[in-house]
Write a structure and sequence with these properties.
- This protein has about 140 residues and is an alpha/beta fold.
- It has four helices and four strands; from the N terminus they run βαβαβαβα.
- Strands 2-1-3-4 form a four-stranded parallel β-sheet, with helices on both faces.
- Helix 1 links the parallel strand 1 and strand 2.
- Helix 1 packs across helix 4.
- This is Hydrogenase iron-sulfur subunit.
Amino acid sequence: MSDKHDTILVYACRHSAYRAADEAGRKRLTYSPRVEIVPLPCSGAVSVHEIILSLENEADGVIIMGCNQGSCHHQNGNHWAEQRAGEVRKKLDQMGMNQDKVQFINIGPDNAHQFVKAVEQMIISLEEGSSREAAG
């Protein structure tokens, strides 16, 4: 991975993913220090523009984590966030870039292990993508 972009940015709904991350800390679960968590009132608050700027300026990968389907505190925020992540993934693919740089994940507040697994899987995915790009 490049030195400039070595952060995995997690946009985390404060009702679900942020609580899962907090629970991971309380359970002393470890994950990469490259992960930076940005709490949001709702995952639906993140825009396509913000995701793209994150990739351009600081992040090697972005994960948007929202409430489980049917559990969004703001009714449809997680659905909007998932659509926006899909839009960015499509744009990355059209530009010949690794679309795995952007992920959307539904997660409940008590899913600390799922939170850790998701961020670690993102790092593995990005490292594999970088290896393929370097070889190709």
